[in-house]
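Key result, reporting period 2: structure in, sequence out.
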């Protein structure tokens, strides 16, 4: 008889859940209950916990939309989060147990890239293969490791950096100030994304709330003209363990003409904390990876980075 058990999540499990995420190989702040639960009633939560020999060993953030069980629709990353008490065959058993528990549902599994993890671990990907999962999404993203000895900007990007003048200054974004975030959204974020017929994933209230709960994991930097408060552009960063992930990277038309986004990224890259090893520019693809925005991808690659994937599986 198996010594691994599945328990459906309830509010009484919050402390055990978050403790597991904090001690896991691959957990991020997006796997914590404070992040998952801020979506409220938007999703029907179907999260589960797993116990081995009566000790918690893994959690599976998930929500149901129609006949799909998704891990997790409200988070950039998802999948099974586990600690060092389960590896290999245990992970396969957990995924099989989970699949059989919700056997009438279609599973959509969003994996957490190893670059976002505390320690590189992919036992769940092997487990997905064993249970017959099929990769249905592969979205490519530029990632940069400033510690690499062969890291350098492409010539055109270096030329943009060299065009910097002291008339542009950088300031930490006051994400505790809802009024400022609302102004940044209305004057920069929304106009910038509307050109591409895209809506921002978060509202100003979302960002304000998330910063209040996760101030260590959410950063912002914006640029203005010297001695003025006119915003030219800004970036908002979500920190996943050893990686800075660019969640928003936006500029005004004037900021674009002045290469402000290049300056902002350069500032962030050259001022990374010592315990942050990666700078991730976010996805350059749409439609689960079937369409590549080549000009966007070229721009990001100009900083000298490599690439990584956000993979989605179905079973």
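The corresponding designed sequence is given below.
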């Amino acid at each position: 008889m198996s010594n691994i058990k599945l328990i459906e999540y309830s509010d009484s499990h919050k402390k055990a859940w978050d403790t597991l995420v904090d001690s896991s190989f691959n957990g991020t702040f997006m796997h914590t209950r404070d992040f998952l639960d801020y979506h409220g009633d938007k999703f029907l939560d179907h999260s589960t916990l797993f116990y081995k020999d009566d000790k918690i060993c893994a959690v599976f953030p998930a929500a149901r939309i129609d006949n799909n069980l998704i891990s997790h629709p409200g988070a950039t990353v998802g999948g099974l989060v586990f600690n060092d008490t389960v590896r290999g065959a245990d992970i396969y058993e957990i995924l099989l147990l989970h699949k059989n528990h919700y056997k009438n549902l279609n599973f959509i599994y969003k994996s957490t890239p190893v670059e976002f993890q505390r320690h590189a671990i992919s036992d769940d990907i092997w487990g997905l293969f064993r249970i017959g999962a099929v990769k249905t999404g592969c979205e490519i993203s530029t990632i940069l490791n400033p510690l690499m000895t062969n890291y350098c900007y492409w010539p055109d990007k270096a030329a943009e950096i060299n065009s910097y003048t002291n008339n542009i200054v950088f300031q930490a974004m006051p994400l505790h100030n809802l009024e400022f975030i609302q102004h940044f959204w209305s004057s920069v974020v929304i106009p910038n994304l509307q050109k591409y017929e895209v809506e921002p994933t978060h509202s100003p209230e979302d960002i304000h709330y998330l910063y209040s709960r996760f101030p260590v994991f959410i950063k912002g930097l914006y640029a203005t003209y010297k001695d003025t408060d006119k915003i030219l552009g800004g970036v908002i960063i979500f920190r996943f363990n050893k990686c800075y992930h660019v969640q928003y990277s936006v500029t005004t038309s004037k900021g674009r003409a002045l290469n402000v986004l290049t300056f902002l990224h350069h500032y962030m890259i050259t001022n990374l904390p010592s315990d942050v090893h990666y700078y991730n520019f976010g996805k350059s693809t749409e439609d689960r990876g079937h369409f590549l925005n080549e000009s966007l991808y070229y721009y990001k690659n100009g900083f000298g980075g490599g690439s990584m994937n956000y993979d989605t599986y179905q079973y």
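The mean pLDDT is 94. The longest strand covers residues 134-144. This case is discussed further under Risks and Mitigation.
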